[in-house]
Design goal:
Length: 218
Amino acid sequence: MKVHIVRAPVERSSIDLLERNYRLRHTIFVDMQGWEAIRRPDQRDVDDFDTDDATHLLLTDGDELVGGSRFTPLDKPNLLQTVFSGLVQGNLPASPSHGADWTRFYVRPDRREGRRRAPESAALFCAVMEYALLEGYAFITFVSTIYMLEHGVSVGWRITPLGAPAIIDGKPTVAAWIEVSEQALANVRRITGQPAQGLLDYAPSGRPGSDILVLPRY
């Protein structure tokens, strides 16, 4: 398996992969999970945050797209601080310029049926932390059900809620931040059994501040 980093300007060779990502997201989040508010006639999940500021981590197995995630810098318009700002009751651990919002995590359903921890999910979790380190982020934020938060803790990540859970679409949902560190990457690799060498098809973004800010321990 291989994780592709797709961001603006999108290379010609990645356009089809990005389009398949939008369509698969629509199938999973709208058709299967019932997110009717984002349903589109063209059956592509494209929202206000699929902009030139977004970075997509797309997992392939051969020619098949089997999973994905999206990053948006926190000093740019993002899902957490706009759509889900009501879940944020505490402060971010550092300046927004040191963080990114992690959204639209998915693994293709047929690749995780009957498996407690799918290899595709493990690969994406490792790639998320590896990418965050390479980009120099100190933390990443996310909004998810309590289950996803517990899953992050189970792979050795330090996760801090940004507020109390709220019921959204019938499920307890929370906003939180994850500390980015070499130890967090080592933990998730060890617990999921992923190899030490990265899966990322990586080229640096050239974003400023590549030195990682070390967050204080409380």
